[in-house]
Amino acid sequence: MPRPTPPGVPVRPGTPTPLGARFRVGPDGVAGTNFALWAGGAEAVRLCLFDERDRETRVPLTELTHEIWHGFVPGVMPGQRYGYRVDGRWDPWTGARWNPAKLLLDPYARAVDGEFALPPEVYGHVRDWPEQRVADTVRDDRDSAPYVPKGVVVDDDDDWQDDRRPKTPWADSVIYELHVRGFTRRHPGIPEELRGTYAGLAHPAAIEHLVRLGVTAVELLPVHQFAHEDHLLRRGLQNHWGYNSIGYFAPHAAYAASGTTGQQVGEFKRMVRALHAAGIEVILDVVYNHTAEAGELGPTLSMKGIDNRGYYRLQDDARRYADYTGCGNTLHVVQPQVLRLITDSLRYWVTEMGVDGFRFDLAAALARSMHDVDMLSPFLAVIAQDPVLRRVKLIAEPWDVGSGGYQVGAFPPLWTEWNDRYRGAVRDFWRGALPDVRDLGYRLSGSSDLYAWGGRRPYASVNFVTAHDGFTLRDLVTYDHKHNEANGEGNRDGSDDNRSWNCGAEGETDDAGVRALRRRQLRNLLTTLLLSTGVPMLVAGDEMGRTQGGNNNAYCQDNDVSWLDWSLREDPGCAALLDLTARLIELRHRHPVLRRRAFFSGRAHSADGLRDLAWFTARGAEMTEGDWYAPAATLGMYLSGRDIPGRDERGDEILDDSFLAVLHAGADDTGFTLPASPWAERYEVVVDTSREDQTESPRVVHPAGTTITVPGRSVLFLRAV
User: Fold this and answer.
1) What pTM did the predictor assign?
2) pLDDT (tens digit, 9 = 90+) per residue, 533-545?
3) How confident is the model at residue 693 (pLDDT cuts 50, 70, 90)?
4) 511 has catalytic annotation
5) Is 356 a residue of the active site?
6) Of these residues, 293, 356, 397, 612, which one is catalytic?
7) CB–CB of 569/213 below 8 Å?
């Protein structure tokens, strides 16, 4: 039975700000915690405190200021577990779903203790009601407290004075997308007790790999506290990726090695410090578009029971949720309290947890005003003027699943975007499916057709060939079709539009010719990505040939399917690919012509007619308008290091070598005539992807004007000398 407020411990009024649970010492020297919860429309709020034996003490919060219920409870110390019960009307037909039998997680909880299971008791309605079409209207009065995690009071004792943020300029960035657990779970150099955790990612063995590669930022798949979906739990699976958030201030407790009653916060901070010390920024993949409470038939875990109508977009039939995410609900970002929740969370992760930026999942859903995507929406306007958030890296996944949701190239100048048009063009070129090379030319040179407006720069484009969602790079050249049977959905889940090519055999094979071709295609794809203008993003493991066995939707595979196989480093072919990737990134860091901060003009800036960017056919002639529309498997791109706009930090002109990239996707060898004066007198081969071993490349120099042989399906990257 719950216990009332302990006698002799009065609940003081406290303050309505900041929201959440904040431990402090009052002016009279009394230590305690201030609790503040926005619950518009609620009739009563009770704070529920849990001791080490899970006994519950209910404390009424009677102070109400601007729809915020608050109170200061003396004696409540860091480590205290808590939740809320919120009273109000049960009227699903109007969107009101208050149910005081359900213990609710504080949306501002900064640590969460316990796992979310989903038995019937955690649903606000009777989940197993015989008539499912009206089940959501029948209230379930069973207590959910024994079955749900609790928030944890956390101390604020860190001022980050000893931390040095790398502050890598956008143009110099190389992003590495990884999963905290998947990246570290099988790493032999990380102590077993730290594998799969924040501490594991902070371990020198993990950081050594990142430093060796030369990446400048890790983009972590969601680390906000998340819950597993009921349909996965029923199949004995779990949500591995974490795109099912329920706590926007709390680091996911299952990734902590040190404990879950607040220790996860310090462990996360130590991870950030360790990465910063290695010169690596930390970007979080964040999911503010929906929550784990799903639609009307989903569980009642937090916001649904605090104020369903205030937090979520509802349809005209208020029983139903507007779903622009494909996940059952959409947060109502136009509402001031929801906008405040999101921006408070973002600022918290920057100022108190040390992160350097965010990638916003389904960002178009956040940019919707009432219904349509609006680039003047409250969310984008607030971010643009926020003195903290406008200074960090902001990456949009520029689409959602609603009408008009595809917005690639449309986000305002402060933002960079995942450029899936880059992904499509590069995949299609290397599998021989591009009708011409017009689209490829734009993608290689920074996608000016998408981003050359409003002061945006080439680094507005985050270029990627693979991401967590879809085939790995190795699977892209190994499978024509997805193989998602292990997900338990009859292979219906995951995209059917993979733009992949198995090189002649579906799946793994002993055919030496097919295997060699696949290795070459991997080199081609990585070389194209890392030499393109824009910000390259690699997926963890692609640099050493990681496979998911053809699963292109491994979101529920918390096992060897998703965990990096570090033994690949011992395979000669995979080790060579790793070496090439590191070499390409180092080449990118060394040459500013590959990291341009302004778009190419394509115009001559000197009397000799040399332009900053020029395109060539295999004949060595500059491309005409007709050439861009003609079928072609070969493209030459000349990058002038003499015409780089801007100046360095000392105010000096930026000068670099000039390069010629020759991309040939045809199966057979082809001749390519090297452009002569004024482009170059000679060309030195820097990268030749037809070679298996890239470490001991002999110095090869060709005179300009000669016709060289470009091996089938290869990239030649040549320095003009």
Assistant:
1) 0.96
2) 999 999 999 999 9
3) confident
4) no
5) no
6) 397
7) no
